[in-house]
Amino acid sequence: MKTYLDCLPCFMNQALRAGRIATNDEQKIKKLLDEVGMLIQKIPMENTPPETGAIIYEIISEITGNNDPYQKIKEKNIEHALHLYPELKQKVKKSDDSLLTAIRLAVAGNVIDLGVDKEFSIVEDIEKILHQEFAIFDYEFFKQELNKAKEILYIGDNSGEAVFDKILIEELEKPVTFVVREIPVINDVTLKEAKQIGIDKIAKVISSGTIAPGTVLDYCNNNFLEKFKNADMIISKGQGNYEGLSNVSRSVFFLLKAKCPVIARNLKEKGNDIILKGMNVAQSS
After folding, report:
1. The domain containing residue 19 runs over which residues?
2. Rounded distance, CA 186 to CA 181, Å?
3. What is the sign, positive or negative, of the torsion defined by CA atoms of 130, 132, 138, 139?
4. N or C: which end of the chain has fewer CB within 10 A?
């Protein structure tokens, strides 16, 4: 997905929000905004938003000296999600369609997005999403591909959200490789958080190599690129991964909540819609 004009003020808001979490030094925050403002003047609009995000969060780290400003927030979100995990597993077990319920829960976890300037209540969102209609619902195709797949590549997004991904991975009942970010960026999941959640006990965990808040293939390591090329089935979680992968020339299933109005428009849907989109598959009503 390319960068839209609406993305530009969002970049500044993200920098300010992250800067204030990273440091109380107003001079450093002002310097940060100055540098991000100069960066925005030069970014090619054909770049994906995560490409610019990678540069912004590198600037944040350099100026504030804090390379993981969201660490405490991530820990709190993971703790909360793990507390909910046993109850959510029971919801899956008792449902008429356990796979679909697990998919809905994985989408519900996508509300834990600190790159978007929106408040969320994970408990309220779970209840809403368990009954919300999908705006794009390629579920039958998803099941067909799952039945055929021998192995699945599952690209993670946010740290707390990964607890909900764990529930879906367990329900897939296929060998899964779970993909994390190389370094901390916003509240995205890294190897550290994946192990804390226990995903390494149910799936192979690898880093994509990217330092961006989304999967940008040009930033990824050879190990990930090989798996991405050859995977029987790819599940991509969240908005940042959609931004980075929406134009790739292979089949990908995107699972997300369209919290960003720009992404919603790109998907030709409305804000806060929930999405299960198979790449190159006709959108379902």
Report:
1. 7-64
2. 11
3. positive
4. C
**What tokens were used for 167?**
């529930």
Other beta carbons within 10 Å of 274: 23
* pLDDT higher than threshold 60 for residue 116: no
CATH number for 130: 3.40.50.10880
Amino acid (1-letter code) at residue 14: Q
In a domain, 285, yes or no: no
Rg of the chain, C-alpha, whole Å: 18
Q: Of 180, 168, 166, 178, nearest to 240 (Cα)?
A: 180
pLDDT in tens, 213-246: 999 999 999 999 999 999 999 999 999 999 999 9
Listed residues 64, 86, 104: the one ending a domain = 64
User: How far is the CA of 140 from the CAs of 29, 100, 166, 277, in angstroms?
Assistant: 48, 10, 22, 11
Contact status, residue 56 vs residue 14, Cβ threshold 8 Å: yes
16 shares a domain with 99: no
Share of the chain above pLDDT 90, in %: 89
Own/partner pairs for 166-170, CB < 8 Å, 24+ apart? 166/85, 166/197, 166/198, 166/199, 166/202, 167/85, 167/88, 167/89, 167/92, 167/102, 167/105, 167/106, 168/102, 168/103, 168/105, 168/106, 168/235, 169/199, 169/202, 169/203, 170/102, 170/202
User: 3-state DSSP call for residue 227?
Assistant: helix
